[in-house]
Amino acid sequence: MLDDIEEKVINNERLTPEDADFLYHHPNPLDLAALADTVRRRKNPDPVVTYNVGRNINYTNICWVKCSFCNFYAAPGDEGGYVLPEQQIFDKIDELIAVGGDFEDGSELLLQGGLNPKLKIEYFEKLFQAIVRRYPQAYLHALSATEILYIAHISQLTIEETLIRLRKAGLQSIPGAGAEILSDRVRDEIAYRKDTTEEWLEVHETAHQLGMNTTATMMYGSLETISERIQHLTHIRDVQDRAMSRGGRFTAFITWSFQPDGTELAESRWKGPKATGMEYLRNAAISRVYLDNIQNIQASYVTQGAKIAQVSLAYGVNDFGSTMMEENVVSAAGTMHLMPLTEIQRLIREAGYEPKRRNTRYELVS
Ligand code: SF4
To answer: How far apart are CA 148 and CA 354, in angstroms?
Structure first.
């Protein structure tokens, strides 16, 4: 069976869910690396690994959804809940500029937060407009599908109306957070108040129809089966097939493992074990070969650490993600691997690739 899959990969033929299942159970990870590298070299032939100089800003941690795998949120009314004042958001943007962020050179602002019942669409319109007024070149990569659905709901708007208004205010593309595993069985178990698979996909499809790019993610290692991981990848691949005739698309796919420390899920139904580095590499490689219509596979050094992220460059990964500067979500579950740009560049170079800076559209910049 491996020979058949190899032949398909070499001939650029699409893999079936059964092929993916075989690869998930195949004992030799080096075979997976070879397959993933074949696809990586076809899709991105230059010996280059890209990165973005950008900043993550979590504008609020207040969230009523209380996902059992999340340690980041504060429930409405809880001590410790915050909404960042506008000036503090500006200060964070100024910190990005002070360390070499340059919006003319494609630096990205990633704004994400909880589902805060007090923040309707007017809050985001005002915030985005204020950022764009002060930093006219700023690229706003902001708000997961989950946030957009909730903003639409409490503002009594459709998804399309919400996206059109947010885009008019300055939103340019949408990050892929909130996907976890796109299976309603798993979503009901780990985050039953959250959006459904269909709703999450609908936000991305609507954005693509409006000409906006988005990214896609997968958080594995909670309560899902291998077949549910493959179902997740198939959903992403199907949406991307339809996006090909539209203006927007998924620009990248990023996978990471459930970070259990201190989470309600780890203290209740999840029995472990914690996903290993090799499992991450397996997921990255299978994503690379199965998602034949997605150009970029991004490393998750924040969750996997520098060394595994570096090794993932041999498992189909061609992008190192963003410098981030700040991370509050997985760090709340005990994981935190931020690093300076020079270290990202060194890791890429020592893996045999040339580090190159890119913008959020994955275009190389100076
Ligand atoms: S993962 Fe997102 S939606 Fe879920 S509790 Fe955390 S902040 Fe809220």
So the answer is: 36
Contact 347, 320 (CB under 8 A): yes
Does this model's pTM top 0.85? My answer is yes
Here the tokens at position 125 are: 């319109």
Q: What is the mean pLDDT of residues 217-231?
A: 98
Q: Is the peptide bond before 273 cis (omega within 30 degrees of 0)?
A: yes
CB of 116 sitting under 6 A from ligand 1 = no
| Confidence check: pLDDT of 273 > 70 | yes
Closest ligand 1 atom to Cα of 64: 8
Alpha carbon of 364 to ligand 1 centroid (Å): 33
Q: Which CATH architecture has domain 2-9+19-357?
A: Alpha-Beta Barrel (3.20)
Length of the chain: 366
pLDDT in tens, 122-160: 999 999 999 999 999 999 999 999 999 999 999 999 999
What CA dihedral angle connects 360, 297, 40 and 365, to 10 degrees?
Answer: 20
List C-alpha distances in Å: 361 to 100, 249, 274, 336: 19, 10, 33, 26
Give the distance (Å) from ligand 1 centre to CA of residue 295: 28
Smallest CA-to-CA distance from 174 within 133, 206, 218 is with: 206
The C-alpha atoms of residue 208 and residue 219 are separated, in whole angstroms, by 22
Cα 56 to Cα 180, 260, 291: the distances in Å are 19, 22, 26
- Residues 312, 314, 315, CA angle at the centre, nearest 5°? 60
Q: Are 300 and 256 in contact (CB under 8 A)?
A: yes
Residue 295 to residue 249: CA distance in whole angstroms: 10
CA–CA separation, 328 and 338 (whole Å): 11
Domain map of the chain by residue range? 2-9+19-357
**What separation in Å is there between the alpha carbon of 329 and the centre of ligand 1?**
9
Question: Which pLDDT belongs to residue 339?
Answer: 84
